Amino acid sequence: MYSIRLRGIYATALAALLREHSWRVVQPPPELQAITDVADRFAPFDLEVKDREDRHGVIALGTPDSVNALKELLFAELPDVICIPGPAELGAIYLGIVHKRRAWGYEIDLGDFKGFLPKPELDRPLKKGEAVRVQVKEIVHPQPIVTTKLSLAGRFAVLSQEQGVGISKEITDTEERERLFRLGRKFCANGWGVIWRTSAYQRDIRDLQGEIQRLRQQLPMLESHPDEGIPGKLLPGQTTMMIEFPGGSKHALDRWRARLVPTEPGYHRHHAHPADHAQPLVGQRLLIEHIKVRSEQSITLIGQITHITPQQITVRREIKGSGLYDGLNIPKEPGDYAITEFSCGAWHYETRYYARDGTLKGVYVNINTPIEFYGDRVRYVDLEIDVVQRPGEPAQIIDEHELQSIAHYVSPQLIMRARELAIECAQRLNARAHGRP
Question: CA-CA distance, 403 to 422, in Å (whole number)?
């Protein structure tokens, strides 16, 4: 089975889940050392998982097989998890072409996508069209961050253009640090330094030397690109997966974490958004974080709270602009407004659109992951399929093709649940229209 290194607020919950399925948790953080074998403290790993910047999910980095195995396991165990392949491989090295100059750096054409090279990474200005060898340093939206300071990573060591010898801070034994320092000085050559990873601890010198030799064999590939004017990949990096934990997944991870340590209700929700969780008041504004599976399409709406309880928030939005209401195909008019009711943990919410005089213009039901309440905002991931109803007409399910378009990123069970929810909501709207409860 695969070995995995876990970091961040989801580490304990994921450790409980993965150990249940015979995964090996290695290089554990302090909070996990009591439940892992001593021999695993310095073992190499196939896969690393760490918090995303927004803390509503994690980034998985590793071999293609291990990343895919993690995805399939999460699909089986978490009700609404979303797994999106990263826009780039972390650590991949490219021949890039300077595309545009920006205020804080350069946009670099890498062939299939563009990266951003910050000015502090450079010791001189670049010209448009200039070829430059860069490495993906950080996976961020909308463009991965790249660097000109190249490195080649193995399981025990990293060859780095930063000359000298580096040693993982996890290796604290003085004699072992001295041994690795001597070996590193011996292996430094041709302007490349050596960084010993945690897994180098007490590793046989033949293993360490063999890995350095394998890494050095890759160096000629950095100069092998046939045409300096065409961008492209020189060496692959780690497969990346951007993983979203919506409300249902956070709740499930709370239960997994509780198997190992006492866990307060809503632990992962509170730690994902640690700002003030005080309940807002009627009249205050509420942010509506409408997250799309394709994150670049996500939007934030603003409404005014008209009614609130611990489990439900009603907001009013004044409709701006012109055109047609999505799905309803009814014109937007001056003075229109929308009333939306959000229930904590609900897999859908209903919005009613009204004309200035209070006449109902249509109903729109959004199907989504369980709604999360965060003080001044609500958050959910849109599942694309929706239900609409115009006055005097039966409810209609729309955008089923959009639901199918996200099937590669969510579990088959979630696709099925979204369809079933849409059917239930349509039936409920039709029953209401006929005066039935």
Answer: 11
Range of the domain at 39: 3-87+240-244
Which residues on neighbouring strands pair with residue 105, listed in sequence order? 102, 118
Q: Are residues 41 and 100 in the same domain?
A: no
Residues 11 and 25 in one domain: yes
| Average pLDDT in the chain | 93
Locate tokens 């039966």: which residue?
Answer: 394
Query: Residue 252 has which token pair?
Result: 């499930």
- Indicate if the pLDDT at residue 213 is higher than 70: yes
**230 — pLDDT class (breaks 50, 70, 90):** confident
168 shares a domain with 100: yes
pLDDT recorded at residue 277: 62
* Residue whose C-alpha is closest to residue 238's, from 64, 53, 26: 64
Residue 123 shares a structural domain with residue 225: yes
The answer to whether residue 230 is domain-embedded is: yes
